[in-house]
Structure formats: structure tokens, C-alpha cells
Amino acid sequence: MGALTGYEIAVLSDTATIPALIATPGFERTPFQSPSWLEAWFAVFQPAGMKCWVGVIRKSDGGQPLFLLPLVRERRHGVTVLTLPDRGVSDYHSAFVSPEFAPAPETMNRLWDALVAMLPPADMLSIERVLPETAERMRLAHRMRPSNITARRLPIDSDFSQLRDRRFDPSTARRLIKNRRKLENKGRLTFDFVTGAEALADLEELLDWRQQRFCDVNDGGDAANQRTFYRRLVEEGSLARVGRLRLDDQLIGGCLGLVEGGRILVLMIAYNKSFANWAPGLLTFESCIASAAELGLTVFDLTIGAESYKQLLGADTTALLELRQPLTFSGRLVLALLDLKPKVRCAAERLGLLGFIQRLRRKAAAKS
User: Which fold has domain 157-297?
Assistant: First the structure.
């Protein structure tokens, strides 16, 4: 354990104490670091022997935790990386931060350097996809750099009809009104949120549709683990919600979202391809936004990704940040290569080499 004036620093690895520490109330963090999310994550993704560490900054008088950083160790790019629990399901990363944590910049630099020095052996520390307000709360914004990933968020600052008029692309809004009317002529069109055991059957159908849509890019093992994770998260019932767009009793579209702190974060959307002519995906989003407004939520977060439909719904773009800190020479080398990769790709595109390389890859794949 290290010490600075007024603070104590530690890195804990005792699996018996970590869950209770993370469950301490009052911390500010994203839903992807909530106790229920992490409990489900470790139950599904933690292979035998995988360890978790928590970097802790606490008050020296009484030991009240002020800053917690949960980390796991992974292999990426041929090196060992310390990162927050993710495996492709966490859209935002954050430490757990007490509202009382407000060190001066110079003090935070000393605290951070001391904490990093105590971390277990690794080549790199990677904290990815950080919202700007989260970086400020963590007192690490000055150490972070822009990520190439963005998020889209829609503020719910009026009733739905006004929000649609102000925010939605006009032609998209007209198309959705027309499609909704056509479906309502076929039957009773409804939307609701469910969770717990009641939601599992509909969740399975949504996951099947999603798997069919992305079958060419899905990794079998990852997809199976993610399915198990989402099922466990929904079954637990305190954080996740399944949104259902139904025509009479038939599910035609739906979404999986997290509801916490006055906002809903949409993780996944899927629909029945038999109804593709009526844009059931966009209708699900529209219904979800309307329901969120009725529930008094203030933010509709479409999370990461720059898909065009998010712009059609009027969501604001938020540039995310990242902290990638090398801890060894190998880590510095890999980070240098990763920083160089976009520049090499850009040069190859200008020279016409990228298309040539892709054609060679396709020919090699066809021969194999």
C-alpha cells in the first residue's frame, strides 16, 4: 500500500472482498460498471484462473474509498493488456468515483503514477471508450486522447411529438408515420418494456434475429458467451429491459437496453425480416423513445457507433476518449505500431494499394 498526503493507494486482488467493494453505494460510474452488470460479466466471461484487480484510492483517515478501477488481464496484439472488463459487451468504460473525490491536478498526477506503479505485470494499460464527462469525473481527462469511436445520444427534453418534430429527419418521420399506420391497419400495434423471466423468450428471439443478420462477422464462441451474458442480465431484472414491438401477439421488432439514472442505453436492436418493408427497426426505436419520454427519462443513449439511422433520429454525436499507457518497452512498441496503422492505411488508399491487397486476399481465400 502506498500513501500520499490525505490519501492511501492500494491494488487489491482478493476475490472475496472485491464484490462488496464495488457494490459500495454512492459511486458515480456508467451502467456498464454497475454491480449487477459486473456480477453477470464475471459469472459468464471469467475463465478459470482469470484474476481481477481493483486499484483503490481512499482517504487516509478512516479509509473511505474514493476511486476504484477494476481491471482484468488480456492478450492483445501479442502483448499483455490491463483493461476494464469488456469482451465486446461494454460500450463505455469508467472508474468508480466518489462525488467527494476532487484532488488538484498535480495531486491527481501523483496519485495516478503511484497507482500505476503498483499494478500487476503487464505491457499496457488500456481504458477505452470514455465519455468526456466521465474523464472529467475521473480527473484523467488531461491524460486521455480522442478515440476513433463516437457515441450518439438524444436528449429527451420535451414530449415525444415535439421531440420528433424538432429532431427527426423530416422524411424519416413521415415514413415512420406512414408505416405505423399501415401496420395498425393489419392489427393491434403495441410496444412495452419487460424484464426478468417474462422477457427471456422474447430476448431469445431477438438474439436469433441478430445472429442471423451478423452471421458473417460473428465469432461462434464470443456470440455464445454474449448470448448467455445478456440472458443472465435480463433474468436478474434490475438493470436490463427488453423492448417489444408487437403486432397483435407477434413480435416484429425489439431492443435490449439498460435503464439507470434517468436514461436508457440501447445495446441491441433486431427485427423480423418478414416485416422489413415497414422498417420495424426504426419503428422500434421510435416507440422506445416515446416510451422513455413517458417514463420521465431524460436521455436516450444509442451508445457507440456512427450508423446512419442514429443521425436520422436526431441524436447528438459525442466524441469519446481513451487512455492507453505503455508499461513496458513491448507496450510502447505496440502502441507506436497501432498509432502508425491509420497513417499507413491512408497512404495505401492514396496509392491504390489497399484495393490490390484486398483482391489478393480474396483470391487466396478462394483458393483455400
Answer: Aminopeptidase (3.40.630)
Residue given cell 482484468 in the structure block: 72
d(CA 264, CA 278): 25
Q: Which three cell numbers stand for residue 122?
A: 503487464
The residue length of the chain stands at 368
- CATH number for the domain whose boundaries are 2-145: 3.40.630
The DSSP secondary structure of 71-130, one letter per residue, reads: EEEEEETTEEEEE-S-TT--S----EE-TT----HHHHHHHHHHHHHTSPS-SEEEEEEE
State pTM to two decimals: 0.86
CB 58 within 8 A of CB 66: yes
User: What stretch(es) of the chain map to CATH 3.40.630.30?
Assistant: 157-297
- pLDDT-derived band at 341 (thresholds 50, 70, 90) equals low
Distance CA 19, CA 77 (A): 30
Q: Which residues contact 191 (CB under 8 A, 6 or more apart)?
A: 243, 244, 245, 246, 284, 287, 288, 290, 291
CA torsion sign for 286, 291, 296, 297 is: negative
Q: pLDDT tens digits, residue range 256-294? A: 999 999 999 999 999 999 999 999 999 999 999 999 999
Which is nearest to 131 in space by CA: 147, 143, 115? 147
Residue 199 CA: distances (Å) to CA of 65, 241, 255, 291: 36, 8, 11, 17
The rounded mean pLDDT for the chain is 90
pLDDT recorded at residue 217: 47
